[in-house]
User: Which sequence fits this backbone?
């Protein structure tokens, strides 16, 4: 009799534990399906407040600015970009308290930058001049034919000079280009400019370039670097030989679903991604060790989560939302630099992803 009672109690206990374990799993499953979005910081009447992300439709503007390819176009771009950056720059008062000098400091901008612009910014951070501008710093008397030809092309509008064919001609050409970059008037091609004159101009140009880089680094803008699939190095995904178990691999249930994403320190926006990989990402079958990854494509718009992986689809026709009630889209908006001062976005990409 006692044995029967003990067996009954033991059976009840096992059933209870089984039910409890099932409930725990259901609770865990439900909690895992809870939206990952945290509260978003918004500005209301000049005051920053936190707002809960509720079901609905959200548009995040990703402003794409085009970087020119010629020297003077780049110079104009740097000046305009600096004007924009200053417009959102907070300052400190004499008491040390931060103070916003412009309403744009409270606005949100997510920028899409060309990789060559980003690379030149990194170079200027180190050298204070771009490769093209370094020609202007060289002593005119030491310029080789290659540099003289480049300088002649840069200063094509300088006009005739009585020093044609001499070192003075090329020094004057360097001075002319610097006058143009610094927006200085009254250049005279027949003046006898000196290397010391040039040195002062070079220092002024370096100061301007340094200011742009510093303002960019301390600004509140969020940015993504536009790269093609081919140039990004992610083409390794196609090579089965790299599928291996180490710290760089995010492991999937199936060996064929594993993938390595090369180390990237900056936020990236990729174009030209293979359609078969896009499809696997959309079906949540492929895990890439990258958060977030912005993909331009013609198939989907929306987003998908896969553990630590976040993929944001941009430009496609078909909606793809991991949480059906949270229709969040990142929309690319081509724009001129100074027009940024006339607009903004309600959200950063990082507010959600």
Assistant:
């Amino acid at each position: 009799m006692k044995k029967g009672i003990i067996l009954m109690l033991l059976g009840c206990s096992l059933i209870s534990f089984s039910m409890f374990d099932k409930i725990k799993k259901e609770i865990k499953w439900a909690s895992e399906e809870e939206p990952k979005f945290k509260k978003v910081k918004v500005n209301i009447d000049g005051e920053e407040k936190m707002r809960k992300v509720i079901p609905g439709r959200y548009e995040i503007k990703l402003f794409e600015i085009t970087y020119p390819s010629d020297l003077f176009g780049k110079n104009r771009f740097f000046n305009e970009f600096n004007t924009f950056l200053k417009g959102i720059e907070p300052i400190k008062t004499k008491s040390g308290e931060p103070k916003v000098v412009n309403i744009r400091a409270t606005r949100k901008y997510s920028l899409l930058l060309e990789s060559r612009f980003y690379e030149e910014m990194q170079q200027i951070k180190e050298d204070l001049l771009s490769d093209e501008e370094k020609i202007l710093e060289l002593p005119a008397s030491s310029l080789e034919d290659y540099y003289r030809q480049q300088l002649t092309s840069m200063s094509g509008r300088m006009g005739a000079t009585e020093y044609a064919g001499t070192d003075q001609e090329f020094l004057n050409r360097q001075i002319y280009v610097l006058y143009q970059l610094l927006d200085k008037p009254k250049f005279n091609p027949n003046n006898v400019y000196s290397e010391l004159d040039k040195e002062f101009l070079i220092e002024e140009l370096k100061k301007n370039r340094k200011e742009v880089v510093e303002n960019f680094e301390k600004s509140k803008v969020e940015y993504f670097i536009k790269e093609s699939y081919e140039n990004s190095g992610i083409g390794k995904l196609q090579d089965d030989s790299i599928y291996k178990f180490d710290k760089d691999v995010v492991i999937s249930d199936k060996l064929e679903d594993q993938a390595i994403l090369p180390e990237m320190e900056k936020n990236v926006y990729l174009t030209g991604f293979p359609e078969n990989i896009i499809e696997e990402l959309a079906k949540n079958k492929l895990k890439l060790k990258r958060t977030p990854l912005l993909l331009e494509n013609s198939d989907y718009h929306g987003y998908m989560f896969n553990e630590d992986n976040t993929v944001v689809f941009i430009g496609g026709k078909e909606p793809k939302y991991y949480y059906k009630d949270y229709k969040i889209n990142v929309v690319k908006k081509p724009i001129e630099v100074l027009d940024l001062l006339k607009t903004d976005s309600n959200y950063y990409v990082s507010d959600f992803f």
About this structure: Residues 118-218 form one domain. DSSP finds nine helices and 15 strands in the chain. The two ends are 62 Å apart (CA to CA). Residues 14-20, 22-31, 237-263 have pLDDT under 50 and may be disordered.
